[in-house]
Amino acid sequence: MTSRPAASPHNSARPRRRSALLPTIIVVVALVIALVIFAGLYTDMLWFNQLGYSTVFWREKLAKLLIFAVGFLIMGAGVYASIRVAYRARPIYAPDNQRDDNLNRYQAQLEPVRRVVMVGVPVVFGLFAGTAAMAQWDKVMLFLYQVPFGEKDPQFGLDISFYTNTLPFLGFITGLLISVTVISFIAGLLTHYLYGAVRLAEHGIFTSRSAQIHMAVLAAVFLVLLGINFWLDTYGTLQNNGGYRAGAMFTDVNAVIPTKAILAVAAVIVAVLFIVAAFLGRWKLPLIGTGMLVITAIVAGGIYPWAIQQLEVKPSEGTVEAPYIARNIDFTRQAYGLSDMAVTPYNATTTATAGALRQDASTVASIRLLDPNLISSTFAQLQQYRPYYEFPKTLNVDRYTIDGKVQDAVIAVRELNPNGINPGQQSWYNQHLVYTHGYGVVAAYGNTVTSDGKPVFMQSGVPSTGVLGTDTSYQPRIYFGQSTTDYSIVGGPKGATPVELDRPQGNTPASKDSADTSGETMTTFAGSGGPSLGNWFNRLMYAMKFQSSDLLLTNGVNSQSQILYDRTPAERVAKVAPYLTLDGNPYPAIVDGRVKWIVDGYTTSSAYPYSQQQQLQDATTDSLTTTGGVAPLPAASVNYIRNSVKATVDAYDGSVQLYAWDTQDPILKSWEKVFPTTVKPYSDMSGDLMSHVRYPEDLFKVQRELLGRYHVTDAGKFYANQEAWSVPDDPTTAAVDKQPPYYLSLQMPGQTKTAFSLTTDFIPQQVQGTESRNILYGFMAANGDAGSVKGVKSPDYGKLQLLELPVDTQVPGPGQVQNTFQSDPTVSEQLNVLKLGQSDVINGNLLTLPMGGGLLYVQPVYVKSTGSTSYPTLQRVLVAFGNKIGYAATLNDALDQLFGGNSGASAGDANVQKSPGSAGSSTGGAVSNNPALAKALNDASQAMKDSQTALTKGDFAAYGTAQKALQAAINAAIAAEGAGTKAATPAPKATATAPPSAKP
Predict the structure, then answer these.
(1) Is 619 exposed, middle or buried (0-12, 13-18, 19+ CB in 10 A)?
(2) Which residues pair with 605 in a beta bridge?
(3) Using CA atoms in the order 877, 878, 881, 884, what is the torsion angle rounded to 10 degrees?
(4) What backbone phi and psi angles, to 5 degrees, belong to 114?
(5) SS3 label, residue 239
(6) Global pTM value
């Protein structure tokens, strides 16, 4: 018999080492995870402390922690108690069959880990419940700190705050308790089964007395909670969106609300029957009661309301629902800030007469010609200076007072573009310590251009100069902006050599405290913009946060270093005011010697009674958001919105200020109680800041979307839906997207002065699959002038004025006007001159202005040549009034054409002298009366055809000849057009076009 070799001590120790190593690995992993979580919390705390909003950090975290704990404890305690009760009530007996023997084996296997399971299962469910509860922290806060609206609902007479603050909280609590009860019931039932208190027998299900009482009590609790839920549903009908309109309609009031109350009482009665049966052992009554409750829920909760709807409501719906539709109209308009909108009947004329614009001289002088959605590349080519700078895709419109006169301006800041850094220089050091900021404001007059179509800048250059200030009168460095998404490390001891690249040196010598390398000035950040990296612990925490060993090892960090991150205006405001929904278009302004980003914040609710729900993303999506120019609001449904907060973010040091703009908003008042001292009164706003506040775009978009139906206040007409409107599609784009609203300075009919306003058009409702007339039914403007006095808001700010045109109007809508511009033979022929040489002709924004007793349309026309460095320049202006159009090189000339040779007012470009050949005419005979121009255009057309034919055949000699002929034809056309312009009559008549009823 062979003896087995003795086990090697080395081999026998290996399993033991592995088993000993495993707990160590687990502990190390747990410590690393804990350290990462701690690093995130610690760095967040530093960020909030540096901004002065530590109250927000601690209160939000504490509130979430407490709510998590409550949810965890309620679920954990409920499940644990149910398991514990079931275990203690287990029967003690000897197994008498194979099944009992199997259960006994399961119990024996479970016994070693029973205590762990009895605690672990409740803990797991508690974690899930706590996490879900924590996500509802805002509902808890609004309930605890609620402020009454001072207005009551029309059905129950309760304050609106009951629906917006109390009802969501009660629904959350009821839902949590129902979940706890159901899971506790299941856990208890499984425990009873495992220990034999509930088992399948030959004659049915055997249940011990203790198990019966246990399950009956839980069933009774469930039914009570179900009854409470039914009762809450009676109030929830006022928030219902499943009927004809939001709110409780006829069937809800007369059928649903009474039956919900009956079901609530019935559920409580059945719960009592379960408790009685549990102690008496008689289950017949509770089982019958449960069956009756189910039948009642089906009949009273479903069949009865359906019968009322079909038999009583549908045959006379318009009449029967009228009182409830009126409620919906009133509360929807109230919830969206439309109640005080002024409606002005506007019987617009379509006849353009000489001098018609005399009464609108101030508006004519302010008409904006620069399209902020098109000229970003123009700004870039003329003002970018370095590839590591950039301008946003869509610029902003603001206004500045210059020499006592308010001027509309198209404005942007020169932001840092990290992708523009030379690839060979994109080291970690350069990206985070050298290239840290953008530089300077660039602004152009909105109402004029140079003679060759470029913007006239009121603020430009490096160093920054202009009528808005210099780099000594305002801080031009942009450390915080919309495209600044990476972190930077800035700051240093006084007298240390600067490492941050500041700006191109320009024509001025470098300052004494700057180093000059390769024509660039250097600087050191001197503000308080981010948490300190001056100690090793903070440095380690941020190295972990950003997962960067370079941050930990670099020699570029010193005792005065700060780290800047979360640098976009929206990010910063969202963190310090987590209860706000933010407008998708923050905009910059020079305010009190600093560049400030102004961000509009909204408080919203989806629980306002009788108010129609709006999907924010759908309502705020238009032709600009689809191209990425601005961002729409998030995909959330609301039925209440207020522009409650105006926030500013300093572009230099990132400091955030919140101002309570809508001081009457109860939801904002609640949040001010949650986070006291974080929101300042608007009385603290400087006059300079006040002068740059404007009406927010996204709020306006939501309001105009509602207004398509809710401009009608008569319930009968509303139901008939014969006067419904739509926002027109943007006629300047190929895609089917809504036309964006436009900022304009204009004087509305009935007003005594010009106001900076946000405007939109309305046309008849567009129904998919049908063709509707594209005529103008309405025009709305929101006054955005808050004044310029410190802490005093103009009483006119925020006023909505709707011009309502007669239903038989003949005023063409934007689509018809654009179609007329494109199909007019004279305009088309002259635009062909601009297209010669493969240039692109781009239609700018089509503006609508109520002027001259009618509606004036103005559209700038841009030309962009080929080439990577090309950019659009304004070369022509199209105008329309009624069924006539005008077309010229300047707006002033185009208006004079349109209005019989003299519009009666001067446009902002009245003094612009276009070069010969740059003026257009809409007289209808520019080409036919100029044989030389006609011949040149024909020659050019033939030359382009010859060029294409030669390329197809590969005959490059013929192609070269054709190109020379094309260039000669272009030169001849320009010369002929110039000669024709000089010979044109001083006051040509505008061209008559197709009648407004023609479909676009």
Answers:
(1) buried
(2) 640
(3) 130
(4) -60, -45
(5) helix
(6) 0.87
Mean pLDDT of the chain: 87
Instruction: State whether residue 955 is helix, strand or coil.
Output: coil
- Assess contact for 170 and 140: CB atoms under 8 A: no
DSSP notation for 76-141: HHHHHHHHHHHHHT-------SHHHHHHHHHHHHHGGGHHHHHHHHHHHHHHHHHHHHHTTHHHHH
Cβ neighbours around 37 below 10 Å, total: 10
Return the structure tokens found at 824: 């007019």
Can you give the pLDDT at residue 57? 97
Q: State how far the Cα of 780 lies from the Cα of 728, in Å rounded to an integer.
A: 13
**Cα end-to-end span (Å), the chain:** 105
pLDDT in tens, 174-202: 999 999 999 999 999 998 888 877 776 65
Average pLDDT over residues 206-227: 90
User: Which whole-number Å values give the CA distances from 360 to 13, 158, 860, in the listed order?
Assistant: 97, 49, 20
Q: What is the DSSP letter of 373?
A: T
CB hemisphere CA count around 190 (13 angstroms)? 13
For residue 921, pLDDT over 50 is answered with no
> Of 633, 567, 624, 576, which is closest to residue 602 (Cα–Cα)?
633
User: Which segments within 626-772 are labelled E, that is strand?
Assistant: 637-638, 640-650, 656-660, 680-681, 725-726, 742-746, 755-764
Asked if 751 and 745 count as a contact pair (C-beta separation under 8 A), the reply is no
Residue 152 contacts residue 159 (beta carbons within 8 Å): yes
Distance CA 175, CA 222 (A): 11
Contact indicator for 668, 645 with CB cutoff of 8 Å: yes
The pLDDT of 439-443, averaged and rounded, is 96
Query: What is the spatial distance between Cα 496 and Cα 433, in angstroms, rounded to a whole number?
Result: 14
Identity of the amino acid at 418: P
For 929, counting Cβ atoms within 10 Å of its Cβ (0-12 exposed, 13-18 middle, 19+ buried), the class is: middle
Contact by Cβ (8 Å): 246, 332? yes
* Exposed / middle / buried, residue 104 (Cβ in 10 Å: 0-12, 13-18, 19+): middle
Q: Is 330 helix (H, G, I), strand (E, B) or coil?
A: helix
Please give the Cα distance from 645 to 665 (Å, whole number). Answer: 10
- Tens-digit pLDDT profile for residues 924-978: 334 445 667 667 767 776 776 676 677 667 676 776 787 777 777 777 766 665 5
Percent of the chain with pLDDT over 70: 88
Q: DSSP character for 473?
A: T
Task: Answer for the pair 832, 937: CB distance below 8 angstroms, yes or no.
Answer: yes
Query: By percentage, how much of the chain surpasses pLDDT 90?
Result: 67
CB atoms within 10 A of CB 975: 15
Mean pLDDT score, 199-226: 84
In degrees to the nearest 10, what's the CA dihedral of 228, 234, 239, 241?
110
Q: How far is CA 463 from the centre of its chain?
A: 34
Dist CA 217 CA 189 (whole Å): 12
| Structure-block tokens of residue 737 | 């997207």
